[in-house]
Specification:
The chain is mainly alpha-helical. It has one domain (about 50-185, about 195-250, about 260-285): Up-down Bundle (Methane Monooxygenase Hydroxylase, Chain G, domain 1), CATH 1.20.58. It has helices spanning about 10-15, 30-35, 35-40, 50-80, 85-110, 115-120, 135-140, 155-165, 170-180, 205-215, 220-250, 265-270, 275-285. It contains 13 helices and no strands.
């Protein structure tokens, strides 16, 4: 007696009707393209605690978002240097959205309680987000430069070379000011060609240049839009740093960080760093 065939499910019917490809023995699959074998095997907890997987995944995904942010920032800076502002605007807006993703990543980590973190903390050794070379490169791109921040990367010549390149190059804001100088604004020579490794010094002349842009936006529309993209970016960056502080305080209180800093005390001091000072000052002047 012939065995009755199994009923066809609604999903099978839809897949058949849509002619979805099901055989990937001779073609590239989704997992192949994204190299998911590598990505999903990179989570190797050192402890037996349940919550270490959360800690690893949160930081790894943040590093992936930072990789994209650096990709976009570098391209945006090249566009500004070659007066292609429309392209730069899209890239800078994307970086701001990436930073929003990074802000919300702290929401997930904040579900870890102090007891859960304490159970796995000893397995971290001296490793810390303070040592993230991608984060440091983002800071350098945004103009927050300091030679001492190169030292955590000296044990890896390849990484040090990458970070040093960003350290020694003009920042995003430097490129914006160089663009304004090319447009005829009275940007001081000290802000057009200088030692790019030095921390940025605010300038009254730069305030006045941005003031012209804000007072006559129709005449300088692309510079006006650039200024607002930069403010959006710093606003998002501040939120990221602030959310970092509150998450760390929530989980470890005022204990010292694994990287040797004071933890919350260090992070709070970094909140006071202003990246594009004249763009904030000009709001008072208007």
């Amino acid at each position: 007696m012939q065995k009755p065939s199994a009923p066809v499910s609604a999903v099978e019917t839809i897949v058949s009707e849509e002619k979805a490809q099901l055989d990937f023995s001779a073609s590239m699959s989704y997992g192949d393209y994204l190299q998911l074998d590598k990505v999903l095997s990179a989570q190797q907890p050192l402890s037996s605690t349940h919550d270490e997987m959360l800690f690893i995944v949160q930081h790894q995904t943040s590093e992936l978002w930072m990789k994209l942010a650096l990709h976009e920032l570098g391209a945006a800076m090249r566009c500004i240097a070659s007066d292609k502002l429309d392209n730069a605007f899209k890239m800078l807006a994307r970086v701001s959205r990436i930073l929003e993703q990074l802000v919300h990543a702290w929401d997930v980590l904040a579900t870890m309680t102090p007891s859960e973190y304490t159970a796995m903390r000893t397995y971290l050794g001296a490793s810390s987000g303070f040592q993230s070379y991608q984060y440091r490169s983002i800071e350098f791109c945004l103009g927050n430069k300091s030679a001492v921040m190169l030292k955590p990367h000296e044990h890896r010549a390849d990484i040090l070379e990458q970070v040093r390149h960003v350290y020694e190059s003009p920042s995003l804001y430097d490129e914006a000011l160089r663009l304004m100088a090319r447009r005829g604004f009275a940007i001081p020579a000290s802000h057009v060609e200088r030692d790019w490794t030095r921390p940025y010094d605010a300038s009254e002349e730069v305030v006045q240049a941005w003031l012209q842009v804000y007072q006559q936006p129709e005449a300088h529309w692309d510079l006006y839009q650039l200024a607002e993209e930069l403010v959006d970016l710093e606003d998002a960056f501040r939120l990221w740093r602030f959310r970092h502080v509150t998450t760390v305080e929530r989980i470890i209180g005022f204990k010292r960080g694994t990287g040797g800093t004071g933890g919350v005390s260090y992070l709070r001091k970094m909140l006071d760093v202003v990246l594009f000072p004249e763009l904030w000052r000009v709001r008072t002047e208007l």
